[in-house]
């Protein structure tokens, strides 16, 4: 549970401050305030410098320090408010600052590293060591980032027959005289007494040992060569042979499947060997994985990991992903938006029709879909556009007149009421002089409401918030609304990490 402390005074210290920037800030997409926040730490003591522009001071600042504690204060915005906070232990803390002034808001965020972090490396790397003349040696280095000097090193080298360590040195060495899997670990303690640790698996291969299948030996070497980017660990021959005899699934796993997973890992650099093997073991074929990789390569900006997650969670089918990719490439359209339309019930044929019509009319495909959900066919939208072009009017007004009962012929003979179309400026046609104000475009309002409802449900927001973004920040552009929501939120309203 978070601890919330509320202060009514301006923060502890106000004035000039030279802190290394921990995060830049940008105007909140909807809020209107610009918040700039920097953070720095000495040992466990951190200082946050927060300034605010826009709105009217004083501002209410809420700082989430990332360790379960929050602080709310009142501040003037400039010069920066300086807030001190003590962390209980070392680690990486994702902090966030929110500022409000009346109905306006803004924010900034970052990550503050308290104490050291350490990565244990080896020479050779990865540490897959063959026994030569009965022994194998490895040199180890603790690479330290952050923290406060001096550093002390505590080494643990399990299974080593001989080793060299020094509490004041970031390096160590170990020699092994028998094949097997061993572990090396180091604990680094900095001058503030804060510690961090890392462990590295070491595999020693005895080529003269008996009892392991030669194919398992080859696979162990091959998969271990992918470590750490595409293999989660180093493998011994016994590990792989254990998979072969049922140690992974309870039933025999063929060498061919493991070899194929290795070949695919070489072709798909974004996936690990284990992820590819799990895809097969979960019942999905290699063909689907290859197709997803091809889609990812064609789209360029969509990674295969995202596509796999969509299929694995049931959010989208492989067929939907292929269809959306074809549309995205043909119309230079947003891939995720096309998937949204398919998830909303559009068939593959309807999707092509939606984008073709949207391209002809120069409007958002989601708007075309919204009209279709209300029973307005694509051919009617296209007819309205042709008639509007002949009359020099707005196509939405022409469609409104047709929906009100006017035939296309009668509309062509006369003038139609003018109303703003979706994403278009006013046309140059004149309204009918019938003594009444031009009526509101009820169809378009209903379409906009449905689109707002769909996006609100998907991202866990209120309909009013989505409508405000559409009418305000995005200036009547649903594509802008979708892009902004995808950038700021994951599905169901959880803000994405900055």
Indicate the proportion of strand residues: 15-25%
Fraction of residues in helix: 25-40%
- CATH hierarchy class name of the largest domain: Mainly Beta
Q: Pairing-aware structural class of the strands and helices?
A: alpha+beta
Number of helices: 16
Q: Fill in the CATH topology of the largest domain.
A: Immunoglobulin-like
**Overall pLDDT metric:** 81
Show unreliable segments: 1-30, 417-440
CATH architectural name of the largest domain: Sandwich
CA-atom Rg in angstroms: 31 Å
Q: What characterizes the major β-sheet?
A: 5 strands, mixed
Itemize the secondary structure elements and their pairings:
Blueprint: E1 3-6, E2 13-14, E3 34-42, E4 45-53, E5 59-64, E6 69-75, E7 81-86, E8 91-101, E9 104-114, E10 116-123, E11 128-130, E12 136-146, E13 152-157, E14 162-164, E15 171-176, E16 180-189, E17 195-205, H1 214-224, H2 237-244, H3 255-267, H4 273-281, H5 286-299, H6 304-312, H7 318-331, H8 335-343, H9 348-361, H10 365-373, H11 378-391, H12 395-403, H13 408-413, H14 442-459, H15 463-471, H16 478-488
Parallel strand pairs: 1-6, 11-17
Antiparallel strand pairs: 2-7, 3-4, 4-7, 5-6, 5-8, 8-9, 10-12, 12-15, 13-16, 14-15, 16-17
Helix pairs in contact: 1-2, 1-3, 3-4, 5-7, 7-8, 7-9, 9-10, 9-11, 10-14, 11-12, 14-15
């Amino acid at each position: 549970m978070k601890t919330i402390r509320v202060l009514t005074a301006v923060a502890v210290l106000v004035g000039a401050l030279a802190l290394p920037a921990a995060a830049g800030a940008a105007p909140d997409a909807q809020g209107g305030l610009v918040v700039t926040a920097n953070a720095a730490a000495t040992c466990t003591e951190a200082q946050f410098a927060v300034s605010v522009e826009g709105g009217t001071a004083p501002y209410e600042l809420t700082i989430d320090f990332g360790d379960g504690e929050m602080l709310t204060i009142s501040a003037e915005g400039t010069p920066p408010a300086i807030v001190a906070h003590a962390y209980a232990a070392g680690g990486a803390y994702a902090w966030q600052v929110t500022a409000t002034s009346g109905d306006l808001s803004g924010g900034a965020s970052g990550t503050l590293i308290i104490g050291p972090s350490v990565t244990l490396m080896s020479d050779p790397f990865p540490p897959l060591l063959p026994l030569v003349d009965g022994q194998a040696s490895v040199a180890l280095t603790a690479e330290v980032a952050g923290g406060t000097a001096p550093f002390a090193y505590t080494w643990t080298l399990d299974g080593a027959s001989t080793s060299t360590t020094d509490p004041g040195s970031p390096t160590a060495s170990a020699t092994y005289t028998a094949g097997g899997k061993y572990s090396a670990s180091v604990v680094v303690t900095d001058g503030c007494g804060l510690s961090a640790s890392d462990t590295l698996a070491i595999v020693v291969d005895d080529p003269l040992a008996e009892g392991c299948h030669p194919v398992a030996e080859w696979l162990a070497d091959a998969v271990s060569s992918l470590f750490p980017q595409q293999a989660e660990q180093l493998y011994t021959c016994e590990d792989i042979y254990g998979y072969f005899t049922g140690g992974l699934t309870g039933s025999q796993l063929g060498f061919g499947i493991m070899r194929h997973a290795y070949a695919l890992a070489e072709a798909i650099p974004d996936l690990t060997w284990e992820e590819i093997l799990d895809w097969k073991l979960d019942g999905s074929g290699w063909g689907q994985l290859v197709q997803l990789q091809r889609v990812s390569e064609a789209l360029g900006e969509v990674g295969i990991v995202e596509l796999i997650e969509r299929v694995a969670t049931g959010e989208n089918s492989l067929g939907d992903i292929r269809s959306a990719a074809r549309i995205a490439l043909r119309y230079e359209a947003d891939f995720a938006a096309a998937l949204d339309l398919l998830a909303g019930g559009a068939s593959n044929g309807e999707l092509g029709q939606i984008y073709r019509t949207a391209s002809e009319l120069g409007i958002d495909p989601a708007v075309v879909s919204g009209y279709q959900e209300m029973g307005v066919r694509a051919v009617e939208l296209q007819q309205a556009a042709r008639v509007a072009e002949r009359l020099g009017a707005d196509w939405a007004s022409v469609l409104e007149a047709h929906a009100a009962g006017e035939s296309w012929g009668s509309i062509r003979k006369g003038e139609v009421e003018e109303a703003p179309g979706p994403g278009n400026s006013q046309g140059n046609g004149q309204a009918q002089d019938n003594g009444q104000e031009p009526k509101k475009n009820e169809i378009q309002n209903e379409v906009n409401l449905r689109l707002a409802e769909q996006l609100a449900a998907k991202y866990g927001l209120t309909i009013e918030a989505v409508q405000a973004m559409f009418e305000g920040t995005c200036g009547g552009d649903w594509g802008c609304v979708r892009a902004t929501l995808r950038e700021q939120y994951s599905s169901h309203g959880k803000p994405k990490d900055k």
